[in-house]
Structure formats: C-alpha cells, structure tokens
Design goal:
Blueprint (H helix, E strand, L loop, with lengths): L2 E5 L6 H8 L3 H7 L12 E5 L11 H18 L8 H10 L4 H17 L8 H6 L1
Antiparallel strand pairs: 1-2
Helix pairs in contact: 3-4, 4-5
C-alpha cells in the first residue's frame, strides 16, 4: 500500500508520530496536506510507510478518499448542530473544490443570510442549490 493509516489520539503530536514511525515530519505533513504541525483535530493520519519501497502516492485514489473524509469530519466539527451532516459537508466542500477554508467561509455567509431573514431572491448561490 505504501502508507499506514494512524488513528489520532488526543495526545498525538506530529513530532511524536515522526519518531514513532521513523518518518520525517515534513513527509507526514505532505501526505496529509497539512500546513501546520497540529494533528489533534484529525481522526486519522496517513503515515508514509518507511518499510516499503512503494511511495504513498502510488495509490492516489485511496489517499484522496482519506483526505476528503478528513475534510468532511473537520467541516462537521465547525458547523451548527443542525448542519452536522455529511450531506451538508459534502455540498459545501464540493462547491468549493474541496477547499475547506472556502467551504467554511461560504457556510458562515449562508448562516448570516439565514439569520437576517433577507429576501430569498438575494440568497447566495449556495443556499439556492442546497434547498
């Protein structure tokens, strides 16, 4: 396979995982598309397997599937209780080409619109498609 799927525990740190698996921290960050060393908010991490000649990129579909699952979990963790569904998360993430930051910004814009009770004809595109 070329990688190990690690279930993140609250006490895990990127440096600790780097030592545990004997994989440089930058490689773990790269495999998980992380911009910081923070891993506590994830449920799973992709760890490139140092015991194999295969690179973790040899199975890009599986890596992409895991990344999308992580993004869905993170999105769900940042929205209101009524919207904590995979349907909502997938909608916003797909509409934003799986850019988590943009998806959360659009969600917040839609929430503001919803709270203000404005004219639905002026609703953001996201809300029109979701309803």
């Amino acid at each position: 396979m070329g990688y190990i799927l690690h279930k993140v525990e609250i006490t895990d740190t990127l440096m600790g995982l780097s030592l545990r698996y004997n994989v440089p921290a930058p490689e773990i960050r790269k495999a998980n598309n992380l911009s910081t060393d923070d891993v506590y908010f994830l449920k799973e991490l992709i760890i490139p397997d140092p015991k194999t000649d295969l690179d973790y990129k040899n199975d890009p579909e599986e890596v992409d599937k895991i990344r999308k699952k992580q993004m869905i979990e993170i999105f769900i963790g940042h929205v209101k209780a009524k919207d904590k569904t995979e349907k909502y998360a997938r909608f916003y993430l797909e509409e934003n080409d799986w850019d988590l930051k943009k998806a959360l910004i659009n969600y917040e814009e839609d929430e503001k619109f919803d709270q203000q009770g404005l004219d639905e004809s002026k609703a953001p595109l996201w809300m029109k498609k979701l309803k």
